[in-house]
CENPP protein
Amino acid sequence: MDNSVCQVYEDEIQALEEEIKLLTEKYEDGQQESTFYSDEEILMSKKSFWREFRGESEGHGFPSDLKTQLESLERDLSFLMKLTGIHFTGHSKKTVEKTRNGTVQKHRLSGNCHSLSFQLKFQLLEMQDKENVSAVITDLSIIVEAGEDLKVKEFVSSTEEHGSLLAFFRSLSSYAEWYEHRRRTFLHFK
């Protein structure tokens, strides 16, 4: 074999031996740290943690029956969907940036309002100071399948500029309800 090939193999072997030595030392250090605590101390620590956890969750008013809470939330959601006509079919959230003072998340929502479908994409900047949490919507993009209605396009572009989701959903609910009535009326006369 060539001398340079042997040297490469010897260097690789030496690097592996050093890596094995470092890993062995880490393992032994971990074993020594775990022997500082007896099994009884570890068990006591676990029990203490669970007592504190249960006490905190009971103190914060979490209901004992999560199934009852889930059913209640589902009833509330069903009521809101019937009231507004808005049904969300998809949602995704991705954290883009997280700092000590705030978080930036990208959201994507899709759904239907009566017979109109919509999609929203936006970034939510949540800032937290000592007492308050504030949220700002940026980069709002709205797609509403309302045909070629110029008023809807104007409304959507205005909403995108102002970043007001509340105004969008209020107006969409009202518009979609009347859009559905007009559509049924025109179908009746055809």
About this structure: The chain has a mean pLDDT of 79. The helical segments are 3-34, 39-59, 66-84, 150-162, 165-189. Residues 3-34 form the longest helix (32 residues). The CA atoms of residues 43 and 176 lie 60 Å apart.
